Amino acid sequence: MNQREQASRMKKYFPKSIALTIVFVMLLTACFTGSAAASSSSDLIIVNKKTNKLAYYSDGKLVKIFPVATGKTKSLTPEGSFRMVVKIKNRPYYKEKIPGGDPANPLGDRWLGLEVNDTYGTTYAIHGNNNESSIGKYVSAGCIRMHNEDIHWLYPKIAKNTRVIITTSGLDMAGIAEKNGYRLGSTMFAGAFIRGGQKLPVKDSFLLEDSRVYIPLRESVMLLGGSLMQEKGTGSLIIHIGKNTAVHRPLSNTAKVNGKTVEMLPSKSVDGRLYIPLGSLTPLFGLPFTWSAKEAAVKL
């Protein structure tokens, strides 16, 4: 029951003067306890029903993505922007009178209740499960199930009032976050290329933004044995690597590769240096690669 409902009941069953006093105390208590329970606006949870994945963002950065299970039909798991308002350990499964913490409890032992359609965290939730094989499937009555190990990791990190976006989308998690007004952050980190088993550290930092890696163009071209010059009159860059010649205007989302226009994510300017998306290495220069997050290295 929320505070508004409690106040209404007080007015009904107590004399007016007493009821007003109790309501005042309730509101005063809420003022002093609310800030401790409130979440930072820097946290966000996204559930994409199309992929049955849950993403946890904090301070503008993607922290972790988990597999989840959602409703048997599309309408069962509601979509929209909701608040996580209730945190419960070992919640009983009242329908079948299964105690909280019991291995047979289909809710697992962690419950993150959502405020959905006037249900104050009691009906819809992100919770554990008693059937690990169900995760990744469309099987629930509306809740979002996680592996028990995963929700044990997530539970202590999430504060009450954290925003939860539930959607069915073809966008990646970063795109969903941006579409819903969440400001994504960026991180600079030391990176390298690995070519022929040789590690080539990059002096200028790599950039991680919107869950994408960007590399410093000029230094990367030189390390890969290419050349770069500026086209007179246009400001575009002419880049040669191997058999490919790419002409790219800084900050644009296209390049001409051997005379043919290729679309790409826009390049970025950081501290006077131009960065291109790591994914552009193949369409622009014909360089297949793999990215090793553990080594912070581009393997060619």
TrEMBL record:
It holds the Pfam family YkuD. InterPro entries: Cu_amine_oxidase-like_N (IPR012854), LD-transpeptidase (IPR050979), LD_TPept_cat_dom (IPR005490), Mao_N_sf (IPR036582), Transpep_catalytic_dom (IPR038063). Residues 43-167 form the L,D-TPase catalytic domain. SUPFAM superfamilies: Copper amine oxidase, domain N, L,D-transpeptidase catalytic domain-like. This is L,D-transpeptidase family protein. Keywords: Cell shape, Cell wall biogenesis/degradation, Peptidoglycan synthesis, Transferase. It comes from Paenibacillus tritici. The active site is at 127 (proton donor/acceptor), 143 (nucleophile).
